[in-house]
Amino acid sequence: MGGSSLLFSVVLLVLVVVLSSGEAREPFACDPKDGNTKKMGFCKVSLTIGERVNDLIGRLRMEEKVRLLVNNAAAVPRIGIKGYEWWSEALHGVSNVGPGTKFTPPFPAATSFPQVITTVASFNLSLWEAIGRVVSDEARAMYNGGTAGLTYWSPNVNIFRDPRWGRGQETPGEDPVLAGRYAASYVRGLQGTDANRLKVAACCKHFTAYDLDNWNGVDRFHFNAQVSKQDIEDTFDVPFRMCVNEGKVASVMCSYNQVNGVPTCADPNLLKKTIRAQWHLHGYIVSDCDSVGVFYSNQHYTSTPEEAAADAIKAGLDLDCGPFLAVHTQDAVKKGLLSEADVNGALVNTLTVQMRLGMFDGEPSAHPYGNLGPKDVCTPAHQNLALEAATQGIVLLKNNGPVLPLSTHRHRTVAVIGPNSNATVTMIGNYAGIACGYTSPLQGIGRYAQVIHRVGCENVACGNENQFGPAINAARQADATVLVMGLDQSIEAETVDRVGLFLPGRQQDLVSKVAAASKGPTILVLMSGGPVDVTFAKNDPRVVGIFWAGYPGQAGGAAIADLLFGKANPGGKLPVTWYPHEYLTKLPMTNMGMRARKKAGYPGRTYRFYNGPVVYPFGHGLTYTHFVHTLASAPTVVSVPLNGHRHGHANVTNFSNRAIRVTHARCGKLFITLQVDVKNVGSRDATHTLLVFSVPPPGGAQWALEKQLVAFEKVHVPANAQQRVRVNIHVCKLLSVVDTSGIRRIPMGQHSLHIADVLQHSVSLQAAALGIIKS
Ligand SMILES: *[C@@H]1O[C@H](CO)[C@@H](O)[C@H](O)[C@H]1NC(C)=O
Ligand SMILES: *[C@@H]1O[C@H](CO)[C@@H](O)[C@H](O)[C@H]1NC(C)=O
Ligand SMILES: *[C@@H]1O[C@H](CO)[C@@H](O)[C@H](O)[C@H]1NC(C)=O
Ligand SMILES: *[C@@H]1O[C@H](CO)[C@@H](O)[C@H](O)[C@H]1NC(C)=O
């Protein structure tokens, strides 16, 4: 939140008092006991939602309307409508970061899943949707009990563009297609699939090109992101478009920053034209908290507050997180900067979502989810899914020997060392709630072995070596040593970007000294959202194993222990590139460019555009077994039918070395299907994550693309068994590239598919125009 006002605080206070009782919720509106409102059109469930919304807007006065444009929407008592707090959060579990949700009895806690960056590393669509379903069960239960809202400003789907970003932990990583699939799956889980009966309303944020918080004197409230059309189209917009088109999300949030000189919340090209007209958002657009106030007061984008209010609403903003629009919109209308019809347009979008949530259907217990209550929160099944998510998301980066998994027979005593060795709240990262309970790494490992616990460093900052001695002694005695190191919210967080990629303070020294002294094998477990340059440990033969646990959620310690001792088999893959620290020297965080500019010494960003040295690449992740892949079938030539209307009149053009606009191709059912046999030749049943990348035909200097992820498939293969995996690749969506004007095109010619790092296959795309199929 940037600014604040008396109005905002007063309404908030009233809200807290009303909600803290934790009793069953009164109807929000249209109380069946209220004979007056029962007969009003907006309360009649027999009418369409559109008719009900119009009826309601027709009854509202201007001063009432403007007070519905903000997150703490005011009550309209004369027609039986209560106040509503729109701001709740559920990034990876119901959270109390927004004022709409409180943990009070009988809802003292909620299931706390791993931070998103960890969950994404599972590459498992059905897991993401299952988590969304559990979170929305718990959210609905808490709403029914009067302690939470129904509008959740989650997920965060910004691309993790720069490894220093403090909020990278909240995101689904650096790949646009991965991020978009995550967004669509999680949103489906949260909202359910009945468009007219939303379970809860999700929100994809922060639109767009927002991925800098506070770096080198530049903060998000003042940053003007200079972004090319090419990068917008093939990187920054992709997860949002997929969230709207495939996830059918009920809301999008615009960000604090400017894009090419215009605040995103005041840009009609971004809001009205892109999100609403092109993508057909069925829902509302909300500002980040006090974005409108920020572009007026901090960015001085308009000279009066009324102009700021008018610009935002005319650009397509429907709801302000913050008081600004409630305070200034009526004056903007009086001054003629905005019409009442513009205000009505915003209300149509917010009220429609409230209707779809059932908020105007009277008695909340009559809703399909009206019977969810305290018994549905923190259930054993829900907590088990939190463990499952951590187990699937944790990534095995190194396993020399292989020494891992540890054995309960040979490794009876384990030295558990490090500032994160007994972590609890650190494991749930930011935008969390109050967890049902925790299993710390120390407790988890204690289930398998006798532990000798020494912190080594008091905290992750690890400013001195005072406690190294006892840690080194513990490692000398134990059969194995596990160091749980890394970061926490003091190093990377909202408003805190990192300055470097190394482990903080003396952590590296602690790892090296302990490893050198250890009697048994030493395993390093890293907790972090962003990547860490652990080249020293990768190269240290004494550190035989490395796990990246991300922020693994309430059950993180149990998952770490299950993986260490082989109860579970690691199958996670890195959703971001792990760069060496030196990478940063050529890369101001403020430079938004995705593509490398070799002559200027600019290395490019993410595995799609950067081909320099890495500590660990995007997609890296080992397992305890071994898989052999064979390509069972794949096409070698695929013709791309062109749109007859444009190319029908006769001219025999040679398309074979051109890149055709996606809008000129008949994309509908144009898929490439691969069949890959995956054989588990090891002795353990295991889950395998098959990644397929494509490399466009040579000579595409314009796209400057190294490769891109086109498919990921998750498959369970028992020991010594084989599974056939079918991979469908949508040609227009996935094999297309974007030119420097921001136009998406399909290059004709040889596309190379890289399957699971071991197989390569070429497919030739050939344009088929004028009924002539060249093949
Ligand atoms: C994906 O996750 C779901 C939910 O935990 C699980 O049931 C399923 O087995 C996972 N898929 C694979 C292939 O492991
Ligand atoms: C581990 O953390 C828990 C919870 O914070 C605490 O109760 C316990 O004493 C800690 N254990 C050790 C050995 O520090
Ligand atoms: C056909 O295309 C070629 C090459 O683009 C062009 O030179 C020629 O003028 C075109 N002919 C007609 C009839 O449009
Ligand atoms: C089309 O262009 C390609 C590459 O320049 C060439 O190999 C091919 O022979 C051409 N085909 C026709 C029909 O002109």
Automatic annotation (TrEMBL):
<dbReference type="Pfam" id="PF01915">
    <property type="entry name" value="Glyco_hydro_3_C"/>
</dbReference>
<dbReference type="InterPro" id="IPR036881">
    <property type="entry name" value="Glyco_hydro_3_C_sf"/>
</dbReference>
<dbReference type="InterPro" id="IPR002772">
    <property type="entry name" value="Glyco_hydro_3_C"/>
</dbReference>
<keyword id="KW-0732">Signal</keyword>
<keyword id="KW-0325">Glycoprotein</keyword>
<feature type="signal peptide">
    <location>
        <begin position="1"/>
        <end position="24"/>
    </location>
</feature>
<keyword id="KW-0326">Glycosidase</keyword>
<protein>
    <recommendedName>
        <fullName>Fibronectin type III-like domain-containing protein</fullName>
    </recommendedName>
</protein>
<dbReference type="GO" id="GO:0031222">
    <property type="term" value="P:arabinan catabolic process"/>
</dbReference>
<keyword id="KW-0378">Hydrolase</keyword>
<dbReference type="InterPro" id="IPR013783">
    <property type="entry name" value="Ig-like_fold"/>
</dbReference>
<feature type="domain" description="Fibronectin type III-like">
    <location>
        <begin position="688"/>
        <end position="759"/>
    </location>
</feature>
<dbReference type="Pfam" id="PF00933">
    <property type="entry name" value="Glyco_hydro_3"/>
</dbReference>
<dbReference type="GO" id="GO:0005576">
    <property type="term" value="C:extracellular region"/>
</dbReference>
<keyword id="KW-0964">Secreted</keyword>
<dbReference type="InterPro" id="IPR026891">
    <property type="entry name" value="Fn3-like"/>
</dbReference>
<dbReference type="InterPro" id="IPR001764">
    <property type="entry name" value="Glyco_hydro_3_N"/>
</dbReference>
<dbReference type="Pfam" id="PF14310">
    <property type="entry name" value="Fn3-like"/>
</dbReference>
<dbReference type="InterPro" id="IPR036962">
    <property type="entry name" value="Glyco_hydro_3_N_sf"/>
</dbReference>
<dbReference type="GO" id="GO:0046556">
    <property type="term" value="F:alpha-L-arabinofuranosidase activity"/>
</dbReference>
<dbReference type="InterPro" id="IPR044993">
    <property type="entry name" value="BXL"/>
</dbReference>
<dbReference type="InterPro" id="IPR017853">
    <property type="entry name" value="GH"/>
</dbReference>
<dbReference type="GO" id="GO:0045493">
    <property type="term" value="P:xylan catabolic process"/>
</dbReference>
<dbReference type="GO" id="GO:0009044">
    <property type="term" value="F:xylan 1,4-beta-xylosidase activity"/>
</dbReference>
